[in-house]
Amino acid sequence: MGQELEHQKKQNYELIVNQIESGIIPHVISDKKEFAGYFVLVFPNGICEVCNKWLFKQISELSSTSDLVVVVPDKLKKNMEIYNTVYKLKLSSIFCSEKYAMPQEEFKDMTYIFYCSKTGTVLYPLALHHKNIDLDLYFKLVKSIDLDFL
User: Fold this and answer.
1) In degrees rounded to 5, what are phi and psi of residue 113?
2) CATH number for the domain whose boundaries are 2-149
């Protein structure tokens, strides 16, 4: 039963990544240029503290979070500010938006990250659903292949 649940969860996240890449899930919070040149971490529906401890740990261990912004629904800004303090995330920018909300139950705890190029294009979306994802490696890979960093 556990493997079946993990398989279903993996399929849901693959679906989300496909929707992100195809543009089905909107990436406009306000002006795209607002996030130009930043990595954007999105909590579209909620923030599960227990589920995201691994992610908070990785963020706190990043050498710099100056190029990382976080987007949460309005109702969760205070929670994100608390996590920022408790987990020493060093986040300088927490934005609020409801435009990323996904009403589907299977996506309620989904979190993802992407890089917004200097021209405002959304690149390299990655669903953060698995503890084996290395956020530092993601940053390094994007910086090594994207022309914005050359």
Assistant:
1) -135, 150
2) 3.40.30
> Residue 30's pLDDT band (boundaries 50, 70, 90)?
very low
By the 10 Å C-beta count (0-12 exposed, 13-18 middle, 19+ buried), 33 is classed as: exposed
d(CA 115, CA 90): 19
Q: What is the pTM of this model?
A: 0.76
3-state DSSP call for residue 50? coil
* Rounded Cα gap, residues 84 and 76, in angstroms: 12
Query: Are 49 and 77 a contacting pair, CB within 8 Å?
Result: no
- pLDDT (tens digit, 9 = 90+) per residue, 92-115? 899 988 776 666 666 666 788 888
Per DSSP bridges, beta strands 112-116 and 93-96 are: unpaired
Tens digit of pLDDT for each residue in 31-60?
557 788 899 998 888 888 888 899 999 999
How open is the CA angle 38-146-40, to the nearest 5 degrees?
20
Q: What is the mean pLDDT of the chain?
A: 79
Domain boundaries, the chain: 2-149
Cα(65)–Cα(84) distance, rounded to whole angstroms? 11
